[in-house]
TrEMBL record:
This is ATP10 protein-domain-containing protein. Residues 37-59, 89-113 are annotated as: Disordered. It comes from the Eukaryota. The lineage of its organism: Eukaryota, Fungi, Dikarya, Ascomycota, Pezizomycotina. PANTHER family: MITOCHONDRIAL ATPASE COMPLEX SUBUNIT ATP10. One of its GO terms (cellular component) is mitochondrial inner membrane. Transmembrane segments: none annotated. It holds the Pfam family ATP-synt_10. GO terms for biological process: mitochondrial proton-transporting ATP synthase complex assembly.
């Protein structure tokens, strides 16, 4: 066999009469080593020295939710039972030793549970693999939580998570109450809680269900704590009671809205604008920060005019907790008066004490 015949046999070139009709380009592609694009050996190759840097890192427009898996070791409630983590067999609530709350001040528009991303931003987040991994971890932690853990934890002192502090937290060391978002009984339009709390001494209750509501009544109802009702009435509008009914199940929330007329009779017409129905926005970070560790328990907070948590209680009122709440409201009112916040919620500049009276303070 000649050399030409051997070459033709190895390369697959057509010979004979049909060779004259064969496309020369097709025969050339047989010898070509660049006919098909090769895959890169490594996508994370380092650029050459002096070359322009790569494009900006991918931006995540809405961070993936993070589920709490263990309490923070430095938390004043690190030993309290939770709906996740290791099951607690024995527990005795202790007074709060340090302030609780968020580390940053609240603002309207936070924790609304509304997705404001555009379609392009949602598409970019949808193809973000790292975000998918974070979301997968979040769902795994949520699904693995025992469903009846909160009910089981009610066996510890009727669900009481902590005892109220013996005195108010210092103003300069106190942490903040988060902004929540929901509709009130006065209007169908949803609003933020921060504008309502700012400039007032607010007793804020958070509950979900009848059991929790009966617990917070031991702190704030006129029948069981008439001294608190007297302080609220005598404050001239500077002190208020704000009730937040949290129901994350949309079917239960629908039933609450259908029978809201019964709530209006129970709350009173003058308090309709201070009764919130909240379904979204309360994350695990918020629950860990403010101590909402059991969804079946009611919690009571004293929030000052700068939205700082100065006092907190959980479950049913025990011992001198009701008296401590009343004293705390009076103390916050005194601080507001010293700062110039009088009736009408007007923040007046601190001036020198006048020699003669200048009217009503």
């Amino acid at each position: 066999m000649t050399t030409a015949a051997m070459l033709a046999a190895r390369t697959g070139l057509r010979t004979g009469k049909r060779a004259r009709t064969t496309c020369l380009v097709c025969q050339w592609r047989t010898f070509s080593t660049t006919g098909y694009q090769r895959l890169p050996a490594d996508n994370k190759s380092t650029p050459a020295p002096g070359a322009a840097p790569d494009a900006k890192p991918k931006q995540t427009f809405a961070p993936a939710p993070v589920a709490a898996t263990a309490p923070a070791p430095d938390s004043p409630l690190a030993h309290a039972p939770r709906s996740y983590g290791k099951k607690v067999k024995e527990f005795t609530p202790t007074p709060l030793s340090r302030p609780i709350g968020m580390s940053y001040p609240p603002a309207a528009g936070q924790n609304t549970g509304i997705d404001h991303r555009t379609l392009k931003q949602r598409r970019d987040d949808f193809v973000d693999y790292e975000r998918h991994l974070a979301k997968r971890e979040y769902l795994k932690n949520k699904v693995s939580r025992p469903y009846f853990r909160d009910w089981v934890n009610l066996s510890f002192h009727k669900g009481k998570t902590f005892l109220s502090p013996p005195r108010l937290f210092k103003a300069d060391l106190s942490l903040y109450f988060p902004n929540l978002y929901g509709r009130t009984l006065a209007s169908r339009q949803k609003i933020d809680t921060t504008p309502l709390l700012a400039g007032h001494a607010s007793v804020v209750t958070i509950f979900s269900g009848m059991w929790a509501e009966n617990q917070i009544k031991t702190f704030v109802s006129p029948e069981q704590n008439p001294a608190l009702q007297q302080v609220l009435n005598e404050s001239g509008g500077r002190a208020q009671l704000v009730q937040i009914n949290v129901e994350e199940d949309w079917m239960k929330m629908l039933l609450i809205k259908l029978f809201s007329w019964s709530l209006e009779k129970k709350v009173g017409r003058e308090n309709l604008g201070r009764y919130f129905l909240v379904r979204k926005g309360i994350t695990d970070e918020i629950r860990e920060s403010v101590g909402l560790l059991n969804s079946k328990v009611g919690y009571t907070y004293l929030v000052d005019h700068q939205c700082r948590i100065r006092w907190a209680g959980s479950g049913r009122a025990e011992g001198d907790e009701k008296e401590g709440l009343v004293k705390g409201v009076r103390r916050v009112l005194e601080e507001m008066k010293a700062e110039g916040i009088t009736e009408g919620h007007v923040l007046k500049p601190v001036a020198a004490k006048p020699a003669t009276g200048e009217g009503k303070k």
